[in-house]
Amino acid sequence: MKIRKGDQVMIVSGKDKGKQGRVERVIPSDDKVVVAGLNTVTRHLRPRAGVRQAGRVQQEAPLDASNVRLMCTGCNRPVRTRSHNLEDGTKVRICQRCQETIDWSRSNP
Ligand SMILES: [Zn+2]
After folding, report:
1. Per-residue pLDDT at 108 exceeds 50
2. What is the 27 CA–ligand 1 centroid distance (Å)?
C-alpha cells in the first residue's frame, strides 16, 4: 500500500474527483482507503431498537487506493510516488515529480 492512514490525498476518479482529504482508514486486504468526509453515500436507516440515528445518514464509502493520489508536500499537487529505503532501513516515499521525500512519519506523527 502506498497510501497510509493520515495521508493528505486527492481523489482522481469518481464523483469526488479533485477533492482533497485525509485518509482515515486503509483496508490493505481490499486495496481500499476511506477518506474523511469524501466519497460519502447516503444510507437510509430504519428506526428500530439499537439504531441510534434513524433516517438518512451520510457515511464514507471505501475508495480504491488507485483512485487517490498522495499530495506532495514539495510540489503541493497529487503525485505518483516511488518507495525508497534509506540507509538506516527506513522506508520513505519519493515524489516522482520533484523528488521530495515524503516521510511516513511526517504524515503519521
Ligand atoms: Zn513533489
Report:
1. no
2. 25
